[in-house]
Every structure is written in C-alpha cells, then in structure tokens.
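Section 3.1: Structural characterization of target chains.
Under the original work plan, the team committed to producing a structural model for every single-chain target entering the pipeline before any wet-lab resources were allocated. The record below documents one such target. The sequence was received from the expression subgroup and is listed exactly as submitted; it comprises 289 residues.
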Amino acid sequence: MRIYESVFEISEKFLDSKSPVKINDYVISITSKQILDQGVKRFPIKKITQDHIYQAVLQEFVGCAINYCYWYGLSNIRPNESSSTKMYSLVETAFKNYQQGDNFEICIQRLTELLALERFPLLEEREKHLKELIPDGEDFCIGVSNAIFYKDKEDFYPFFEDMIKTFPGYASDIFLKRASLFFLQMYRQYGWFESAMIELPVPADYQVPKMLRGFNCITYDLYLDELIKHEVLIPKGSREECSIRAATVIACKKLQENTKWSISDIDGYFWLKRKEIDEPFHLSITTDY
C-alpha cells in the first residue's frame, strides 16, 4: 500500500455508525451532475523559466511546512492580520535572492524571525517545523526540481514518500494534508505532477468541509452542529474533528469518481466558491491546516 492510500482507509474507519458526520451519497450524485454542468474552475497556470524552477519548488516546500493556523479560534482574531498570503510573502522575503548552494539555514532563521515579528500563531510549532527542513530540505528540493527540469521522472510518489520519511512535520498529520497540498500547489500553479491529482486525497482542512456541508453532501449530528454554530473550539484529534476531515476525504473522492475530475479540480471548485455560501466552519487550533 502506498502511504497516501492509508488516508482513504483511515477515513472510512472514522465514518462508522458512531460518527457525528454522515455522507449523503444521493446528494453527492446530484452535486456531481451540478458541478459537471458548471464546468471546471481552474487557477491560471503561472509561466516560469527553467532557471527559476528550484526557487519555486523551495519556496512552496518551505511554505507548506508552516501553512496552518492563522488565528486563535475565530477567523477575525488575527494578530497583524496573519494569513497564508502574508506567510508566503514572508517566505519570499526570507529567501529573496537565494540561490542553490547559498546558506539555507540563515534563510530559515530569517523567516522564523519575520514570523515572530508578525506574531503568527503557534510560533513554537512553526519554528520546530522549519528547523526540521535544515538538514535535508535543499536536497529534497533539488530532487524535485531536477525531475521537473528533465521531465524524465515526474512521478510524484518517490518524492511524496521521501517527504513523509524525512520531515516529521509533514508526516504527523493523520490525513497528510500539507504533504498532499505541496503537490497540489505544484500542479495548480505550474502544471507539474499531474499524476498526483488523480491519486492523492483532498487536502482536508476547514473550507472544503464547510462547502460540502453547505451543499448537503455531508451532515453533522445535533451536538456537533451546535458546537460549530456557537463557535466552540473543537480539539485537534478529537472524534468530531477527525470525522469532519474523514468525511471530506471520502466525499471528495466520490465526487472525483463521479465527475472524472482531478482532486485539484474538486478542491478548486469548492475553494473558489467558498464565499458564496454563508455557512460557519469548524474551529480547531491545529498545525495540520
């Protein structure tokens, strides 16, 4: 079994008779036809020269390592309005003019300082995950960029497996959200690693389940519904939190099978429509999303 396949297996186990989240197969079937009629909504592919492949891979790899938790509970409680957009801009600043062979560790330290000055949430966890990249991060990015540059081994799985084996921060999430997100971002931005978009699970966080719930593809029991409605923090790793993410993985897999879309297309469809549905999402302080 490939590592990412365990995510589907684990997700099915969470969705037993005791699960506070249920999947509505009939609605998923209807939604599949609906989104097919509306058509794929894709992000524009960025043009990039071969000289900049390594830099693009490196910045996304570092960004994905700390791409989580931009608030303490409510999304409007953000020190200095922290966000993924600001985080990626700090990564770009820390690695400005960086070239392969430069001092990677100094750039990581610079990024850590920038995150601290901006008072990003979970700073200790972010620092830990960044330090994990120092010994082998450059070599990993060289391997990925070489595969893209030479186009002779653009199979994502050896790099996915290497990421999980080498960097604990990427491996610790039971649903492997940020590991999957790295390859989704590589495909979404530049068209690289297309094969991953057919096989990997959806990067399960909080916006996609919000949308699935808004479409009635998944439903919550009364207790969980009340927690979300009253903006109560749901503990990371709890039955409720894991069930939400498990249902997201399985529901998106069913939508993918019904539509024959890639997981990037399914994820992108809901992400781009996320502001059209006034539905609260669950709140959880986590390093996974």
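Residues 70 and 76 are 10 Å apart (CA to CA).
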